[in-house]
């Protein structure tokens, strides 16, 4: 029976010992959107939608779950609103609200359709709200927050076509506007985030214009965008040096305001579909490398060359006092996993 989180449930629970034991997600899933948010003094981790083990249209989920990091247990929330589940949406927690943007639905014949919707979850009450639709439909976009008010979508894919758009959502006005577009190629499946006034993103996939069988090819470049303090729609872009590791597609990323770093982990060297396969039907391998861009030093740092249980097909990492958290994804096989993996930050 589905359990709906309420205020009393979020405020209940006892602290565990310093070493946590967290349950796996109740179902194996990849392409799920993840976010973290504090309710009172307790941190909760969230997983939304995604596609299950069969990797078929009827394995796409609209389920939502929350993990209490003190008890280590998952609770199922009200499902994400809408007639169908989605894959490769993006989520982030800002000012006591969790925002969920975009993603694509999968039809019976396998057609993928990106959506424009913006949903907002108030975790303390377990209630969903609908925000203003995005100007364009998007999946596989990078999201980040600025001043606890503005939410950016950076690039992504719109009905099969990578875009260079940067869209800006004002949470106070519930309205969208256009920001300075990306300076690099239009990409999707890239990774990044925002710390303070700085956007960082790397890699992804672009349209293949060479005419061979692969519809998309990987991109190997990173960019930094400085947000104008007076005009949040204005961004100044500069190119970054190459990052560590060989992965370029669907690397998971997390922005950490506390230590002024943006972390990256997993992903693959080759572009793959939502089942972890190339266009030729061969499986791709997940990278074990975890690295970070340090905003204080302006350098790349290798966190781990052998991160535990590497995966691809993740929509994000989550930063906690325990380390970087990866939820679900595609593990070796390839197969969807339900594992909650902790990656030490040092």
Beta strand count: 31
Q: What number of structural domains do the residues give?
A: 1
Beta-strand percent range: 35-45%
Q: Looking at this structure, what is the CATH superfamily?
A: Kelch-type beta propeller
Low-confidence stretches: 1-19
CATH topology: Neuraminidase
Q: Provide the gyration radius in Å.
A: 18 Å
CATH class: Mainly Beta
> What coarse outline follows from CA principal-axis ratios?
globular
* Biggest β-sheet strands, sense, barrel: 4 strands, antiparallel
DSSP summary: helix tally: 1
Structural class: mainly beta
Average pLDDT, to the nearest integer?
A: 91
Descriptive account of the structure:
It is a single chain. The protein has 346 residues and is mainly beta. The protein has one domain (7-17, 24-343): 6 Propeller (Neuraminidase), CATH 2.120.10.80. It is 1% helix and 42% strand. It is built from one helix and 31 strands. The protein has one helix at 7-11, and strands at residues 33-39, 42-51, 60-68, 73-76, 90-94, 97-101, 104-106, 112-114, 118-122, 127-130, 142-146, 150-154, 157-158, 161-162, 166-170, 175-179, 191-195, 198-202, 205-207, 216-218, 222-227, 235-240, 252-256, 261-265, 290-294, 299-304, 318-320, 323-327, 330-331, 335-336, 340-343. The strands form ten sheets. Strands 1-2-3-4 form a four-stranded antiparallel sheet, with no helix packed on it. It has a four-stranded antiparallel sheet with strand order 5-6-9-10, with no helix packed on it. Strands 11-12-15-16 form a four-stranded antiparallel sheet, with no helix packed on it. A hairpin with an 8-residue loop joins strand 2 and strand 3.
